[in-house]
Amino acid sequence: MDLEQYRTLIDRIVNEKGTQAIPKLLDLLTDENEEVREIALQTIQKFGDRAKPILIERFRQKVHEQVKNDILTLYLVDILSDLQEMSIKKELYQLLNRYDQESAQLVIYEALAKLGEGEKIVDIVNYFLLEDEYREELAEQAIMVLSHIVSPKVIDTLVKAYKDEQLHTQVKPFIIKAIAMITMKDQKLWDYLNTMAPEQLIKDIKEYLEN
Question: What is this structure's pTM?
Answer without folding.
Answer: 0.93
